[in-house]
Amino acid sequence: MKRKPRSRASRPLSLDKALAAAETARRRGDAAGLARALQLVSRLKRLEALAPPPPRRRPEEMSDAELVSAVKALLGED
Asked: What is the tens place of the pLDDT at every residue in 24-44?
């Protein structure tokens, strides 16, 4: 049975894939594809810059309070 491809919106995003898509579009001369890929690259770079640094210790080594504060920081809650 052939699998149905996932829609573009549900595919996982990564900076490497976006850069590869931009390079492919550039080589093909696809201006619209290049614009979409570069827009995605800039969005991913902005999100990457906003992400808090990962915790320095492994979760198993953290206290409950530290785990709660780390999760809240990831979710953007105070």
From this structure: 999 999 999 899 988 988 888
Q: 65: which 2 tokens?
A: 């309070």
pTM value is 0.50
Calpha distance 20→15 (Å, rounded): 9
Q: What is the crossing angle of helices 15-28 and 31-50, to 10°?
A: 160
Going from N- to C-terminal start, the domains of the chain cover 14-75
The SS3 of residue 26 is helix
* CB 15, CB 44: distance < 8 Å: yes
